[in-house]
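Escalated from tier 1: FE2/S2 (inorganic) cluster holo job.
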Amino acid sequence: MAEFYSLRVNGVDREVVDAQLGESLLFVLRERLGLLGTKGACEQGECGSCSVLVDGELVCACLVLAAAQSGRDIVSIEGIAPAGVSTDVQQAFVDAGAVQCGFCTPGLVMAAHSLLERIVDPTDTEIREELSGNICRCTGYGRLVEAVANVAKTRIALGGNRG
Ligand code: FES
Ligand code: FES
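Tier 2 regenerated the structure:
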């Protein structure tokens, strides 16, 4: 039976119509709400390409039911910054050459933002551990780690506190 519910995505209440209750948040974001920035690959919680924030927690959108997220605050890659504006993490990825094919990039950007919210000045080991749920087949991870470390250093230099 088709269902109707609403989701709060990137600060906006969105109506989801003609949905099935078993649909994942990944499917609904992409196929029903047209938010194509969140990528789907494994759809088994293994690759991290579908990472979004739900009530501030990083989750694999392929693993959670969309209808169950009603009333929660969902942030996808489209909502991480105003349209046309790059976050410091996104700019650092570009500057470090950490974007190649780009398929993994939205999920990694979400993961990096989540990491830097929790650990202000992560070590390289912490960055590697925190991003280990995000698979990138292109970069070899060195440039990704460099990008995240650069953001942390810059934020601290601009007045952030060491975590
Ligand atoms: S598509 Fe969700 S973790 Fe791979
Ligand atoms: S840049 Fe291609 S998979 Fe990461």
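Residues 10 and 56 are 12 Å apart (CA to CA).
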